[in-house]
Amino acid sequence: MAEFDLAIRNGTIITAADTITCDIGIRGGRIVQLAERIEGAAREVDAKGLLVMPGGIDSHVHLDQESGPEIRMADDFESGTRAALAGGNTTVIAFAKQEKGKSLRACVEAYHKKANGKAMIDYGFHLIVSDPTPGVLNQELPALFQDGCTSFKVFMTYDDLVLNDRQLLEVFAVAKRERALVMVHAEGYDTIKFLTEKLESEGKTAPYFHALSRPQLIEREATHRAISHAELIDVPIMIVHVSGREPMEQIRWAKSRGLRVYAETCPQYISLTADDLKGEDLAGGKYVCSPPPRDRDSWAAIWEGLKDGTFQVFSSDHCPFYFDSEAGKKHPKARQSFRYVPNGIPGIETRLPILWSEGVAKGRISANDFVALTSTNHAKLYGIYPKKGTIAVGCDADLVLWDPNRKEIIRQEILHHGSDYTPWEGFAVTGWPVMTIARGKIVMDDGQVLAKAGDGQFLARDISPYAEKAA
Ligand code: URP
Ligand code: ZN
Ligand code: ZN
């Protein structure tokens, strides 16, 4: 019997810390040897001329999520993870959303049913707390943390999700007590409502006005408020999908005060602008997400933050809807007002090529930074490191073989997600995943998906070291 199931030969290995040339020996789904030369494996892959990196971890994805009575999400756990692995990812952390008035535990069980037998790569769940009753705060959350859902998201906006300040404080206090990592959607509910009604009363109802209803100052104010609440409770927080300079200034201010405030940004904030929402016949709806894409000055600000450590993670915020469907962006009421266009865009498959192309290929960040931002830091923050997120003996053999020189034009026809469009149609990239290996199995080879539904396993995550007092 061969000593290794698989050997990756002659590749250049990139981790968040190092760049080395060596072979990788894999057995039983794990990396068991790194050596100058590994021979006699049952199967060999020649990675000469390619980079070998930890598989992408996308820690912000929405799959098969309840999105309102008439709206249907375009990806379930099968199509969503298929698209993820085609884009070089080996792990996703999706949201398990509590419906107001329902038990969080029952909601999480429903998400387990949605994912089990369907996911093609490993997955975890962040909880979404929308109804923090005493039962949720004192019984359900602690039990769910024990079960490996060690992070949760709270929203400062959206009718069906918003928590008021008192509720935010109560939930933050539970996070502190239980050492859970809280993710915050920082946009102010009342200010958005006020501006939305004002715009509508002026007849400004097209998708473009979605961007004007949620200016950066609304994100800035909510970011500051979330930070203040976190300081009061003395709990770390992660501000997700940060879109530009103004919220970043609040995050930097918090860090300068020694507060543990972490931050995430996404491809839409380095490559799309509010002008993309201007398309005719609801086409602007393809870009409606929250916070909305900003402008080129914001892209420059985000790059500063990606370079100086303001951001720990670069996620997709994949939240896929159909464009040409009444169950999606063309909801029957979407012509009445932008407020009826479902918020969210698909991006799980294009996250890595966009960051590589705009970041590494253009000399803005190093390949090691790329690995940190797309994989290692996600694993560390969300309690799955070093099983996931690096290349070392004993880790899961989750790898992406990357061609740094391959040029592609992003097009709907080459993608694997469920949506009927991509916001990056026609976007040129340099750098593309050519093989994805998940727990030692080749799951994508030159665009061909080889994984089966159900190959992915639920990841019960550890307590985040970043949620610990001394981190
Ligand atoms: O528009 C967005 N981002 N939709 C997804 C839900 C969220 O807030 O992350
Ligand atoms: Zn959000
Ligand atoms: Zn999201």
Q: Please, could you describe this protein's structure?
A:
This protein is α/β, with parallel strands linked by helices and 471 residues long. It is built from 12 helices and 19 strands. The strands form 3 sheets. Strands 8-9-10-11-12-13-14-15 form an 8-stranded parallel beta sheet. The protein starts with 5 loop residues before the first strand and ends in a 22-residue tail after the last strand. Residues 62, 185, 241, 289-290, 317, 319, 343-344 line the site of N-(aminocarbonyl)-beta-alanine.
Structural class category: alpha/beta
The CATH superfamily of the domain at 55-368 bears the name: Metal-dependent hydrolases
CATH architecture annotation of the domain at 55-368? Alpha-Beta Barrel
Bound molecules: N-(aminocarbonyl)-beta-alanine, zinc ion
CATH topology of the domain at 55-368, by name, is TIM Barrel
Strand content: 15-25%
Termini gap: 45 Å
> What's the Cα radius of gyration?
21 Å
The largest sheet is: 8 strands, parallel
Low-confidence stretches: none
**What is the CATH class designation of the domain at 55-368?**
Alpha Beta
Give the overall form.
Answer: globular
Work out the helicity level: 25-40%
Side by side, the strands of the main sheet go: 8-9-10-11-12-13-14-15
Tell me the total number of β-strands.
19
